[in-house]
Amino acid sequence: MQINDRRIHFLYEAWRSGSMRQASEILEMAPSSISRQIAQLEREIGSTLIEHGRREIVLTEAGHAVLEYYRNRHSSLEMLNAQLRDLSAARTGHVKFAIGEGFLGEALYRTLDEFMDGYPGFTLSLSVTDTTEMVRLLLEDEVHFGLGFHPLSHPQVVSRFRAAVPLKAIMHAAHPLADRSSISIAELCAEPLALMGQAFRIRQMIDLAAADSGQLVSPVLVSNSIPVLIRSACARRAVTVLPEFSVRSELSNGQLVAVRIVSSAMQSVYVHLITRRNRILSPQVMALTEQMRKRLAPTALYAPTDGKEPAAS
Known about the structure:
CATH class of the largest domain: Alpha Beta
Helix content: 40-55%
Strand content: 15-25%
Structural class: alpha/beta
Order of helices and strands: HHHHEHEHEEEEHEHEHEHEHEHE
Strand order of the largest sheet: 2-1-3-11-4-12
Largest sheet: 6 strands, mixed
CATH topology of the largest domain: D-Maltodextrin-Binding Protein, domain 2
Shape: elongated
CATH architecture of the largest domain: 3-Layer(aba) Sandwich
Mean pLDDT: 86
């Protein structure tokens, strides 16, 4: 079977944008021309690729298989280019990745500095986003990998490694609860709280733990900025809830303390490094993920390498 990659590209853009009309704006072609190219591709392959008669583009199982081939082919070409660059000692390229807001901090910054020092010919693109957007970026190959808390389960997204990262109550060292070894969910919810927005998995885990305990979460400050939450705790205005590595410098200098929260949900929070299923990563991208594992998730467990990769959970 001979497959025309150009026609698959038309199918990909139509699916990605949601309709022939929107794809026509991207491709600068008439919608009818795109439709004809997809129809020709169906004849070449001998299978229906989209559900015809619908305004939006909905792929059939065969359509999903064709786009999976298309993405894997481009991923393989990207890896080949990286290997050829490495062999020729050019060592140039570009790494794109996404992380959750909770990972911003000195550990990440040192990791990026180390990578850029080791690979001076490489450039980086970092997207700070919530898990829903992270999964979309992965599925559309706009990033090589993502690092997030409990990413949403998706059949085309797999976890390369995971590490337990308990969420803790972060408060000023002079706070009345600061000398406690642990606090309950009820005690936490009774405090003025500064928390992330509900689109973020950290907040979703907090809300779930509170609901399981019959408590209501009513933060006095909501922000998608970790530094804003940390400042609120440093100013003694509120208690926030974060993993310890997000406030490592403030914990080290004694300004803030981290107190264990008595909740199984808070203790069973996992960080996952996720990629699109079957995405081939270049040696340079793998080097960056390994540096992140060492600094941000040193207790990480790798996913099985028998080809049966589990979806992120």
